[in-house]
Design brief:
By secondary structure, the protein is mainly α. The protein has one helix and no strands.
């Protein structure tokens, strides 16, 4: 394998690794947002139930 091909392969692998790590943080943040939304809905439902 030539030096240019090795460099290209390492660059591609590095990019994929960096992208996957960023995606993990993005999905974690999205999960936290959904969880916070669920808690807000639960609190609203509890408040409505108390008023009844």
């Amino acid at each position: 394998m030539t030096t240019t091909k090795k460099f290209a392969l390492l660059a591609i692998l590095g990019t994929l690794l960096g992208t996957s790590l960023t995606a993990c943080n993005t999905f974690e943040g999205a999960g936290q947002d959904v969880q916070a939304g669920g808690r807000a809905i639960e609190r609203s439902a509890d408040n409505v139930q108390k008023k009844m």
